[in-house]
Write a structure and sequence with these properties.
Elements: E1 4-8, H1 23-34, E2 37-42, H2 47-54, E3 61-65, E4 70-74, E5 78-82, E6 85-86, H3 89-96, E7 104-107, E8 116-118, H4 125-137, E9 142-144, E10 155-156, E11 158-163, H5 165-175, E12 181-187, E13 195-201, H6 206-217, E14 223-227, H7 233-238, E15 241-245, H8 250-253, E16 258-260, H9 267-280
Parallel strand pairs: 1-2, 1-14, 2-3, 8-9, 14-15, 15-16
Antiparallel strand pairs: 3-4, 4-5, 6-10, 7-8, 7-11, 11-13, 12-13
Length: about 280
């Protein structure tokens, strides 16, 4: 018998390691699936980067990548939903980033190899050195261009801007006047001093993954959600029980029904145990 849904961010929630889900967390989630809980991972990562820590999982789950631009049934990779941007957005983002120190990346989506287009002459030396690190973490091909190939980018899932927290909020505020665009500002999960503005189709949010999948497939079942950064807020708002990791931004803690220890302490287990008690009683 199905008991409900558990919607989980990956970085900083399930794991603090870009390469793997800790064995105790893996085992605990597997035990919940065996008891009738459905697991959905919802991440800002590309598919090829998201699958790295999830590759050891031996249970079925749903995966929303790039904040829900693509939603897949795993391990079959059956496509459930897709919400992409059009190439018209690139000119708008160019205007939003005018005067910024750093530029942005454009991702093509998992069916086109998760290629990442970037203009290296518009990034600082520090960011370019960081990109060399990122290239080692996933199989995404990085493609250097002088200008973005509009014909190849008629539809794509994500733009990722880089900069200071202040600059990223300026970009987000500029883009807020465009109703078909959704932005979220988060701290980079690896280079903590860098902030990102994640730009997606307005329908590609973690909250919509909960609506499109959890609420649609089993509308009467409860949803428990856990996250640690600002792009997790739409997912938490949609959930019946909200778990926020203790190291999350302070403004998120007020949303929490449960505050869990950090991912480095496998705190998700403790948070889920408290949440599930409500439904196991």
């Amino acid at each position: 018998m199905k008991k409900g849904w558990i919607a989980l961010d990956i970085d900083g929630t399930v794991t603090d390691n870009v390469y793997e889900v800790p064995r105790p967390v893996d085992d605990y989630l597997h035990s919940l699936v065996d008891k009738g809980w459905n697991i959905v991972f919802i991440t800002g990562r590309t598919y090829s980067f998201a699958i790295k820590p999830l590759k050891t999982l031996s249970f079925p789950y749903t995966l929303g990548v790039q904040n829900g631009a693509d939603i897949l049934r795993m391990p079959t990779k059956e496509k459930i939903f897709r919400n992409y941007l059009s190439s018209d957005v690139l000119a708008i983002v160019d205007e939003a980033c005018k005067g910024q120190k750093e530029d942005y990346l454009v991702y093509t989506g998992y069916e086109r190899g998760d290629s990442c287009y970037y203009r290296p002459d518009r990034f600082s030396k520090d960011l370019l050195e960081y990109f060399e690190v990122l290239k080692t973490l996933a199989t995404d091909p990085w493609v250097e261009v002088k200008s973005f190939p509009l014909e190849e980018l008629k539809g794509f899932p994500l733009i990722k801007c880089f900069g200071t927290e202040e600059d990223m909020y300026k970009v987000s505020e500029y883009l807020a006047k465009y109703p078909d665009i959704k932005t979220s500002v988060i701290r980079d999960p690896i280079k903590k001093e860098v902030f990102l503005t994640m730009i997606t189709n307005k329908e590609a949010t973690k909250g919509n993954v909960v609506r499109f999948v959890c609420r649609k497939e089993h509308p009467n079942l409860p949803v428990i959600a856990a996250g640690d950064d600002m792009n997790d807020i739409p997912m938490l708002v949609e959930a019946d029980v909200k778990i926020v990791m203790e190291n999350a931004p302070k403004k998120m803690l007020s949303l929490a029904d449960i505050v869990a220890p950090s991912a480095s302490q496998h705190g998700l287990i403790q948070g889920l145990e408290k949440a599930i008690k409500k439904y196991d009683a």
